[in-house]
Amino acid sequence: MKISPRIIIGSGGTGGHIYPGIAIADELKNKIPEINILFIGSKKHMEMQEIPKFGYQIESICISGGKKNFFSLSGVILFMELIYSCFLANKIIQKFSPNLVIGTGGYVSFPTLYAAEKNRIPILIQEQNSFPGLTNRIFSRYAKKICIAYEESKEFFPQKKTIITGNPVRSGILQLPSREEACLHLGLKIEKPIILSMGGSQGSNSINNAWGKGLKKLIHLDIQLIWQLGKGSLQRIRKNRISHHKNFLLMEFIDHIPICYAAADIIVSRAGALTISEICLIGKPYILIPFPWSSDDHQNKNAKILEEKEAALIIKNEEIDKKLVDSTIQLLNNSSMKKKMSKNILQLGKPKATNDIVNEILQII
Questions:
Q1: CA distances to 195, 279, 299, 339 from 345, in Å
Q2: What are the residue boundaries of the Glycosyl transferase family 28 C-terminal domain, all occurrences included (predicted)?
Q3: How confident is the model at residue 275 (pLDDT cuts 50, 70, 90)?
Q4: Does residue 250 sit in helix, strand or coil?
């Protein structure tokens, strides 16, 4: 009797680490329907609710991550969490007995990959950013294969086992509905311009505050806004009566991102690697606002690559209040700039990334 392959994916913390793992899992299921896939995530973060929505099991470890001074109380707590999480990940791996462990970066991946290496389980690393995270840099020496999204990150990994694939994205991104269908679904007017603003899975107070100050201007120009605020911000923004205007669609988190992508004329977001990879496939004019406190400043480095290729505009975090609303409106009204940006960003897309990564996985297992 044929034994079904067993895969563990260490994936969590933010959507930028979670959704690449889900995309890989979905493609593995398409190719091997009987495959057994288990996710490992942090019990304190969104993956515990998000991953089961896609039909996958997830086991939790207790690491919280974040930048902490190891000589502070929070640093000591993080160190203790790390030790305990390595113990938990080891128990999970020994019980599940996977053929391969996949790390998509972030602090959840560290205990997962550590336990995999200690149990001599093959490892595959998927790195989303142009500047690799610490976990992936550490464990690259043990990995069978390293799949990267940017040429710029190749120098940080062993050359012989590193391959440029691009970032895995959800299948719905490759098959967007028409703009007409999307606007009908969202209750927006197709004849009016639409901005899609995303502050990341955690939201962004600075982006939200800037839009809040510019709502009257958007109403005056009859511009529609799909506004993803992040957890905990919706109630605060709703206290402003103007935010209830019919031109504005507010939500904490976007469950059906392909619909919002399809409706939008312009997209504004942080410079997370996953979002960038998705926009490169759909080819919409793009304004990036790098999160200045991202680990190793990776968001700024991601954004610079697009800016250098004239595929996106960058607004610095400290300039959001002054520039966000006016710069977005100016781009909406600049047809030649929008056309140029769309053409350039499409050239950066890698639509076969998920398939290519899964083919590498199949060669290992």
A1: 18, 8, 17, 10
A2: 195-353
A3: very high
A4: strand
Distance CA(45)–CA(279), nearest Å, equals 25
Count of positions (residues) in the chain: 365
Residue 38's closest CA among 58, 52, 22, 24? 58
**Whether the Cβ atoms of residue 226 and residue 261 lie closer than 8 Å to each other:** no
CA 307 to chain CA mean position, Å: 19
Q: Summarize the chain as % helix, strand, coil (round to 5).
A: 50, 15, 35
Burial label for 200, CB within 10 Å (0-12, 13-18, 19+), is buried
> Domain 6-167+351-364 in CATH: superfamily?
Glycogen Phosphorylase B; (3.40.50.2000)
With CA atoms as reference, report the closest residue to 144 among 122, 129, 159, 163.
Answer: 122
Strand partners, 198: 228, 269
Domains 6-167+351-364 and 172-346 share a fold: yes
Distance (Å, rounded) from C-alpha 214 to C-alpha 40? 41
Mean pLDDT, all residues of the chain: 92
**What are the extents of the domains in the chain?**
6-167+351-364, 172-346
Q: In the beta sheet, which residues pair with residue 194?
A: 224
CATH number for the domain running over 172-346? 3.40.50.2000
Instruction: State residue 248 phi and psi, 5-degree precision.
Output: -115, 130
Strands (E), the chain: 6-10, 36-42, 57-61, 100-103, 123-127, 145-148, 162-164, 194-198, 224-228, 248-251, 266-269, 286-288, 313-314
Chain centroid to CA 298: 13
Q: What is the pLDDT of residues 107-134, one digit of tens each?
A: 899 999 999 999 999 999 999 999 998 8
Of 134, 109, 146, the C-alpha closest to 10 is 109
Q: What tens digit of pLDDT does each residue of 62-89 get? A: 887 665 555 677 778 888 989 999 999 9
Residue 287's contacts (CB-CB under 8 Å, 6 or more residues apart) are 266, 267, 268, 269, 312, 313, 314, 315, 324, 327, 328, 331
C-alpha 161/C-alpha 157 separation (Å) is: 8
Cα 65 to Cα 97: distance, rounded to the nearest angstrom:
26
